[in-house]
Amino acid sequence: MALIVQKYGGTSVGSVERIQAVAEKVARFQAEGNQVVVVVSAMSGETNRLIALAKEIADEPSPREMDVLLSTGEQCTIALLCMALENMGVPARSYTGGQVRILTDHSHMKARIEAIDDARVRADLDAGRIVVVAGFQGVDHDGSITTLGRGGSDTTAVALAAALKADECQIYTDVDGVYTTDPRVVPRAQRLEKVTFEEMLELASLGSKVLQIRAVEFAGKYSVPLRVLHSFKDGPGTLITVDDEVDMEQPVISGIAFSRDEAKIIVRGAPDTPGIAYKILGPVGAANIEVDMIVQNVGKDGAADFTFTVNRNDVKRARQALEAESANLGNPELIADDKIAKISLVGVGMRSHAGVASKMFGALAEEGINIEMISTSEIKISVVIAEKYLELAVRALHSAFGLDAPAED
Amino acid sequence: MALIVQKYGGTSVGSVERIQAVAEKVARFQAEGNQVVVVVSAMSGETNRLIALAKEIADEPSPREMDVLLSTGEQCTIALLCMALENMGVPARSYTGGQVRILTDHSHMKARIEAIDDARVRADLDAGRIVVVAGFQGVDHDGSITTLGRGGSDTTAVALAAALKADECQIYTDVDGVYTTDPRVVPRAQRLEKVTFEEMLELASLGSKVLQIRAVEFAGKYSVPLRVLHSFKDGPGTLITVDDEVDMEQPVISGIAFSRDEAKIIVRGAPDTPGIAYKILGPVGAANIEVDMIVQNVGKDGAADFTFTVNRNDVKRARQALEAESANLGNPELIADDKIAKISLVGVGMRSHAGVASKMFGALAEEGINIEMISTSEIKISVVIAEKYLELAVRALHSAFGLDAPAED
Asked: GO: which molecular function terms (chains A, B) (predicted)?
C-alpha cells in the first residue's frame, strides 16, 4: 500500500464540477489501494477576490489579518472536496493548516514551515479516510494563522509528504509534465520522463512555471519523489527525483529554458580598480533590485566594461540608481537594452560531458546569432542574445542537442 | 473603565463601507475609556452563498464539513474589521472561535458552548487592543470546527460577556430597541427602556425577532446585562436585565406580541376517556410537529372537544397524522383553521396585579372580537382570535393597557 500526497491547484478546483472531478480521481486512487492525502488551493479567483476586499479597506492591510482573510479560501475548498467525497460514500476529513498542525515561523504572508504534526493525519489514514488539507497555510507558535505566500500549496504538499514519508508527492497542474522546452516555441518539444531536483530548480528559476522553486528545494532536501501531472488528463507526467536515480545514459541536456523578462545595463569606461564591481552593484542592490548575470571585461585604456542583467521592470530604477552615483564611478557611459532574451541549457549530464558550451556556441553561430553575454554553472549554460533571435535560437539548440521528438509520419 | 462586548450582525457588516462605519463606532467606544470586545457575523448574503455552494456538491452535506465551510464567513469579517481598525491606528486583533478558544460539544451545525478560555482576549484588552471575535463558531474537544446554528453570534457575544464578566453586552441590530408591540401595526408603540429576561424570552418566542431565544436564556442564566441598540443610529436602546432591577412602578404589561404563523385543529367528538389527550397528541408529536396551545373541554354527550395549535406550515401533516389514527380516536370530526392569529400580553407585573385577564377580555369584547382559545402562564396571557381582527385587537389592547405613546401635538 503506497501513501500518496496529491496537490490540486486553484484551476483544478475552480468550480463545483471540477471539485467533483477531483473527488472522483482521488477516490479512484484510494480504491486502487493507496492511502491518499490531498492538498488543495483556493478556488481560482477566490484569493484575488479576497485581496480586492482587503484593499478596499486599507492600502496596506495588516499582514496578520491578511492571513486570517486569505486562509478562508483554502478552507472553503477542503470543506467542499470532503463533502463531494462523503457524498460518494468515501470517508474523508478536512484539516486547516492550524488543525494539522503545520507549525510555521511568525512571518505573515511569507511564513516558513518549521514542523508538521502528522499524528491526526496518520490516524485518519489508518482509519481508511482520505485526508484533505488546506494548502498555503499554517499556524505560528502563538496560534495565529499564517500563509506561505503565493504558490505555497506546493510547499504544503511537499512538506506533508516529507513528514509522512510518503511514497510520492503528486502535483496536479494544467500541463502534463515538464518539457524539454516550451512547446509553443518548439512544437517538437518532448515531455521528460524524469528530471533531477537540481535541473528542475534551474528550469524553475529560469521561468518554467510548472512548480514553485521553494517546493522543489524542499522536495530535494528531504528526497521526496515529486511528480508533475495533468489534473484532468491521464498520463505518467514527469518524475522529479534525486540525481543517482537518473539513468546514466540520459542525454547531456535535459531541457532548454528561456526568458524575455530581462534587460541588460552596460557600464562602459568605469576605472578598472579593485572594488569597482561593488561600487556599481552596491547602489543597485540598495535599491532592492535583483541582479542576475554579471560580466566584466577590461576594455581599452585600462577602463572596465561592466554588464549586468536585471528584471525588465527594474531597468529604469537601476539606471537611476547608477546615475545618482555617477561621479563615484568615474562618470561612465550607461547603456540600457531591454531587447534581449536569455537562453539556458540545463542538464546534470554536463558534469561528465565536455564540449557542451562549444557545441552551443557553434549551433548559434551557424544561425548567425551573436552572443552578448555568457554565464555558466555546473549544470547550466546561459547566454544572452538579441530578443528577435529567441525562437530561432531555441529551435536550433533543441535540435542540435537531440531533444526533438521523432518526426511523425 | 467598563468592559463592553458588542455584537454586530450580518447587515451591520454587509459591505466594506459598513465595516468601516462599525470600526469607527467601536474605536469611539474605546476612546471613551472602555475595553471593547466585538463579535461579528458573516457579511450579509455570505452564509447563503456558502450554503448554495455546498448544496451544489451534495444534497445533504456532511455536517462537520458544513461547519468548516460556514465558519469562513465570520472569519472574513473579523479580518476585514481588524484591518479597518488598524488602518485607523487602533490596535486590534482577530480571533476565530477556535482561537479564543470557545469550546463546544460535538453537535455540528447546532453546537452548544461548554467553556470559554478568556486568557488571550483578556491579555489583548489589557494591552490596549480591541478584540474582534468571530461569532457563531467554536471548536470541539477534537479540535474540529463547530457552529452554533443560525443566530449563534448573539450567543457567542453573551457567552463571551459572561466569561469576561463584562459590564454590558450590546447587540446591534436594525431596530433601535424592543417595542411594546410592532410599530408597523401600532404606530404609537413605544420603545421599552428596560425589560426583564423572562419578558424578553416570552416576547422572543412569540415572534419578536430582535434577539435569539438562546442568547436571552444564556444572558439570564449568567445575569449578563444585555442591551439592544441600532447599529447606525444613536440612542439608549433597550436594556434587558434581571427582575429585581426593574422599577416596581412599571406598568403591568410590558409588551404585546402576536403571530400569524399558527393554525388550529379541532378534534370534535372523541370519547372523553383518560389518556385521550395523549392519544391525540402522540401521533402529532411522532410526526415531529410542535404543538403550541392546547385546550380541552367536555362537549355534549360526554365527548371531548379538543383543540390545539401548530405552525401553519405543519397543519396539513398534523391532520394527516390524526386521520391515520382516526379509528383509535373514535372517528372524531377534524376541523383545521389557519385563519387565526395569536396575541399575547407579556409582563412580570402580572404576578402582582389581578384582573389582567378580565381587562384583556373586556377590551376585546368591546371591539366585538371573539376569543377562540385562551392560555396563560405566570407572566403571559395568550388568546387566539380570527386573523382578520388581529390589527384591531392589538391596537385596542395596546391602548387599554396604557402602552400608547403620548399623542404628538
From this structure: aspartate kinase activity
Helix, strand, coil shares of chain B, percent, nearest 5, are 40, 25, 35
Cβ-defined contact of B68 to A96 (cutoff 8 Å): yes
Spatial distance between the Cα atoms of A133 and A98, rounded to a whole number of angstroms: 10
The C-alpha of A181 sits at a distance from chain B's nearest C-alpha, in angstroms, of: 39
Based on the fold, state whether residues B223 and B256 are members of the same structural domain. no
Residue of A nearest to B18 (CA): A57
In the stretch 9-38 of chain B, residues with CB closer than 8 A to chain A read 16, 19-20
Q: Which of A69, A84, A99 sits opposite B76 (nearest CB)?
A: A69
pLDDT digits (tens, 9 = 90+) for B145-182: 999 987 799 999 999 999 999 999 999 998 899 999 98
Indicate if B227 and B291 belong to the same structural domain: no
Percent over 90 (pLDDT), chain A? 71
List Cβ neighbours of A303 (8 Å cut-off, separation of 6 or more): A268, A269, A270, A271, A272, A332
- At A320, the pLDDT band (50, 70, 90 cuts) reads very high
Residue of B nearest to A52 (CA): B16
Is residue B407 in a domain? Answer: no
Residue A250 lies in a domain: no
pLDDT in tens, A10-37: 999 999 999 999 999 999 999 999 999 9
Whether residues A62 and B98 touch (CB distance < 8 A) is answered with no
Q: Model confidence at B206, in pLDDT bands (50, 70, 90)?
A: low
Q: Which domain holds residue B126?
A: 3-245
List, in order, residues 6 or more apart from B281 with CB less than 8 Å away: B291, B294, B308
Partner-chain contact B69 A84, CB within 8 Å = no
Q: Judge if B130 and B224 occupy the same domain.
A: yes
Q: What is the pTM of this model?
A: 0.84
Same domain assignment for residues B234 and B260:
no
